[in-house]
Fold this protein.
Amino acid sequence: MIGLLSRTILMGTPLLYGSLSEVYAERSGVMNTAIEGIFLMGAWAGFVAAYQTGGNLVIGLLAAMGAGVLTAVLYGWITIYLKQQQIVTGVAINILALGICSFFQRVIFGVPLTPLIVEPLQPIAIPILSNVPVIGSILFNQNILTYLLFVLVPVASFVLYKTSLGLSIRSIGENPEAGDVAGLRVDRLRFLTILFAGVMCGIGGAFYSIGYLGMFTTTIIGGRGWIAFAICFLGNWKPYGVLIGTLIFGLAEALAISMQSSGQSIFPNELFIALPYILTIVLTVARRSFNVPAELGIPYRKEG
Amino acid sequence: MPETPFVELRNISKYFAKVIANQDVSLEIRKGEVLALLGENGAGKSTIMKVLYGLYKADEGQILIDGETKIIRSPKDAMQLGIAMIQQHFALVQANTVTENIILGLVHGRYDIKHYDKIVADLAAQHGFDVDPTSIVGDLPVGIQQKVEILKALYQNAQLLIMDEPTAVLTPQESTVLMNFVQQNTSAGKAVVFITHKLREVMEVADRIIVMRDGRVVGDLRRNETNELELSKLMVGREIHERTYVEAVVTPNQAVGLELQNVSIRDPKDNVFQIKDISLQVHEGEILGIAGVSGNGQDALCNALSGYRRLTKGKILLGGQDISNTTVRERIRLGLGYVPSDRHRYSLIMPMKLTENMFLKRSYGTIWRKYALIDQKSLNAYTAEKIHAYDIKATGPDATAKSLSGGNQQKVVLAREVDLGKRVIVFDQPTRGLDLGAIDNIHRTILNEKKKGKTIILISTELSEIFGLSDRIAVIYRGEIVGIYKNHDLDTQKIGLLMAGYTPDTTSDQVLHEK
Amino acid sequence: MAVLLGLIVSGLLLLFLGENPLTAMAMLFSSLFRDGYTFADIFVKATPLMFTALAFALAFQANLFNIGAQGQFYIGSIVAVSASLLLQDKLPGGLVLIIVAAATILAGGVWGGLIGWLKARFNANEFLVSMMSTYVALNIMNYLLRTWLLESKGEYPQTNPLDKTVWLPIIFPGTRLHSGFILALLTCIGVWILLYKLPLGFRIRAAGQGKDATAMAGINYKTLYIIAFFISGALAALGGFVEVNGAQHMLVQGFNPDVGAAGIGIAILANGNPIGIIFASILFGALKVGGTIMGQLAGIPSSITELMLGSVMVFVILGYFVREKLEENREKAKLKEAVSV
Amino acid sequence: APVSTPQTTEKSAGDYKIVLLLPGPINDQSWNATNYAGLEKANATLGTEMEYIENVQSADFESTFRNYAERGYDLIMAAGTQFDEAANKVAKDYPDTKFTVVNGMMSDGANVAPIFPKEYEASYIAGMIAGEVSPNGQFATIGGFPNDAMEKLLDVYEATAVSIAKERDLADAQATRSYANSWDDIALGKQMAESMIDSGTDTLFVYANQVGLGAIQAAKEKDVKFVGFSGDQNSIAPGTVVASVVFDFETFYTWTIDKFLKGELAGNTVHQAGIAEGIFNPVYTDQITPEVQAKVESGMQAVIDGDIDLTTMFKQE
Ligand SMILES: Nc1ncnc2c1ncn2[C@@H]1O[C@H](COP(=O)(O)OP(=O)(O)OP(=O)(O)O)[C@@H](O)[C@H]1O
Ligand SMILES: Nc1ncnc2c1ncn2[C@@H]1O[C@H](COP(=O)(O)OP(=O)(O)OP(=O)(O)O)[C@@H](O)[C@H]1O
Ligand SMILES: [Mg+2]
Ligand SMILES: [Mg+2]
């Protein structure tokens, strides 16, 4: 049970990086539909950099953020400044990202016969706290990226609700024109949230390759970026909301996996794999009062 | 020797994709004065001020502040130069609170919302505005939203306050309060630009008047050296003739075309009645005008009539037949025409062709069908004929609705609804946002339909329109009809009070329907 | 133009591998026309793409995002293969094909219509729901492939092959080009007629471009959401049918995993026009066949296909921007000229 | 009956046109990489000039076969049982071309000659090792997909491991089995393994390509034993992977191609290979004592000599 909860948090970590940044992007009015591609680029670049530097995870993380930001820049440039369709652009960029990392993976590493491996991030037990029964091993024996979230979630919430930056972001997602009139640079702010998404999703992707597994394959993300995307909806576009959403998803996944690995087959395993997706649909339908930003997905075309 | 004006615009031109909005506009704004910017719809008033405020980039020309050339790239630059602007269409974030709207873009870093709530509350109190800083703007009536806009400008403590048609949504009484405020504001050496196309307001409030027409400045006058007639001539380029009501008598034997019996609609969300207990009869060949300040239930009434919303209570009879539970489609079939006030949203599909807009309400009918397909040929012919008959300026039946000017768009709607409304036509603000030529045209059409014996409801906030066309006038206030009068039994004074919720025969401090 | 740029960029990337992009490209084009079989394969590939592209385009006309064509395609494939296997030795082939097509349309339609219904009834975000529904469909397929539909030899998650009697007839002997391609062409034309010649299609477009005005015209746009999604789902499912009965003749796990995304790309390239979709699909078909051929060249990894598709799509989108900009500048220039005269 | 052209002896190995179809990318560090390595090795030893094509999607199986057959290839190989149907289908039209599916089980024609590694013999070796090294006899297995071959090999592994553990007086010895239903989801592999370890597993055995890589990570972090399979996985996590049973595809391919060159790769037969052919070899780490190694060797010998019938361990049939 403790193991299950601890894994819930561990596996929720990358999703939360993604969904937290998605909250910011969507609050400002831009859906980050390139999320899957950014995750993948982060996972790939993080791995390559870490591997080439002999397992230096810090450099790996930096590279992941860099690659995430680059991908995000392309996405943001097309959707925010060139005002093109977000969903369609996302689809294109996701395919491109897959092409780029499969292609360059080959360019860089050729055809290795043994797996390329780096030592992934290790859990750090926090002194004293980690000795608290139950809670200790669930919460305080995690890796650094998870701990970072303990800080990031409150900060994200604080910035969104208590600072001028947050007010501006929330406002331009609802009425960009009002923001414009009030002297905000709408496109620039939106671009900023997408860059932030680049950083966060880059880390999220790197979590899989160098944070957890120490390896890279092109299927490593396998739709998990989209789960982070969905969690943003479920979390009602709130930092603490997505925290809860992530935990629900993480728990569903962890449960599914422990059922699956116990070899019991009362329910088909596919049901469990599909469960988070079904859950998303159900919750999307069941949630009546959504905080959905009024101008979500609509480019701001300022005339003149 | 004249002092340097606060703002000077020199030879500004601004082109949009298809229009020249401003051409070679030069004007000055001086400290301590109220400058009225007068012009018809589409004259370019908003555009020139948006250029000054940094919302639009001028294609040509320059801006001088205190005699120095400045480049204003964004509203932020303008705000730093001491310029504030209240938009014609409110620029408020509906989901945010009043305070959040006011401080948007003006706070930095962490802020304490309680602290600012208090500042806003004080500011409101100082100007006698009754605004709760913590309420969500989307929940507020438009009149209050206007005040929020003004508070936002005041909060900036700007040297120049630009107000773009601030009175459009206010009652006459609220407008008066606003005018007083404007005049007080300039006493401290601040300047105000007051954009409007209402002559009366100009004469009341302005020190100086700049008249615009077709994107150019056509006059720059002091208020005390001009008069309304001169201004209107400048504005329109010709003299205006106020349409005077032509007598038309409702004889008792005329059949009732449309009847409402205790019609109510309650908003399911907050349980408030949007319209309550409305009962009225309109005869064939009669125009019933419904006057009122916008936001007093006109929308709900239209929705009830068109079938867009279910009634909570009551009955609607069309020629004696109960249509309360029929759908929009059914009512169209029964011969109910409806010209909504927001043509961009409710009557036309902007990216579609005129033919398609003509087809819109008849897609279920069998007219213009050939086998199962749409009979494009006859639809084209029909549209071409309407373009001709209504003198619609369009390149042809295949032009998109978007490519037409506002007045011509409205003519398209009219052409369609007049044909569809074989028995009853509901006009909601049919001339809003149009210039005099178009207005005249539309008024003529309405009267023509009346002559044909159709039953007509005309909802309008323009009193001249109500007085000019209606046989009888009903006044709506807070969702209720507060009185139905024969046209002759009312005058502007009396109707103004009714619209504001006062009984016309008591003193003005006695409120009729205060809740 | 955009397509060309995309090809050039991905070609240049080949330099990283020390391959000469020019010879690679030359090789690609020459081998596309190398033999009838390969050439015909372009159209074989284009066939399911036309359906998924139509699925996206049609919903898009109603301003709906059907991002779940992939899942609807799978549903269609499942139904097509199950129905075919069930009926193939009971009824004559032609009749089976008709029944299978009808069943596919129905199943895909219901699957899609459900998304539309959620949108209409609960105002659920159809983008998210349709995307999630793909994963659900995928898992249904995976489940069935390892249980009910698993081949008799029980080796691999795939079905038994279909009888020749229920294959869609080949048009050109010696190639794989089957009559599903004709069906796809007809469907494109059919959808065009629906959208631009029939009142229903008109209403779908109207609802997409101005739903309030549509409602005021007595048209229930919520019903249209369901209808549009129904048709859209049925179209994508038909794609599964032609792929299964026309090209694959069985169902294998993980087959055609990118028809959905490519369909979106095609719909965009064609600007949503059903007739344009025909040509755009053929172009994508050529890219895919070409990518496969390039991948066959020693030293060029197969991921070149994604690289080409991705960059072509990005450039197409950029192309839209350039076109908008040019248009705007032209208008402005005209105006200035008019003023100065 | 189709007449196949006799193999002319003048033709040197390099003159044969041979191609290998791979379902995934050759750098996948598992199935495709292993097959690719086999091809390289065969080329090096036999002097052939085999080509390969990677990432052949299921939609393209048939067209790819046809493509090469059309161009007169002598031998078309494909790695994976999923190619069976397409190979058999296309083979009918090209009697001059030989079709060989690695792991194939269908052979419907004189020119279809699948080769099948008896993987359950390999898992037998793994089972012996696991049985000896397991501290408490808590075995767990993860398979990619539950197909027939997979079930058989896991049956043999489990039966062997549990019975050896019981011989070591671990009366509670037991095995749990699960399927990832995936070949490539590394993260899933790691999570599944973690979950199994949490519920007491002390010895892991995974045959699910990249899924297994994730499981090794988990085993390493939680310090349980892992028996490598199919490739040499010892170096991935020294100390955790106690030994690997390597599928010697280099030998397997060389064996196959050699047969082909000699004209011995007959159709209508499934060519099976196993311990006897030398394609399954254990690779030990220092965790395996020489005694254990000796036991394993004798077990393998028993298989070669036919002293033990592994098929009796299959649960079904
Ligand atoms: N964003 C825009 N794009 C294209 N044309 C525009 C735009 N804004 C205004 N116009 C056009 O420019 C002209 C001037 O418009 P402007 O809004 O300045 O008029 P106005 O005098 O403020 O009228 P109103 O009294 O209706 O507010 C009009 O023809 C208008 O249609
Ligand atoms: N927001 C806008 N965006 C783009 N084009 C606009 C916009 N507003 C107006 N236009 C264009 O500007 C032109 C003039 O429109 P406008 O409504 O101002 O005309 P007008 O001069 O007021 O004529 P009318 O008397 O018929 O109302 C039209 O061609 C219209 O397409
Ligand atoms: Mg204006
Ligand atoms: Mg106008």
Q: What stands out?
A: The domain at 256-514 of chain B is CATH 3.40.50.300 (Rossmann fold).
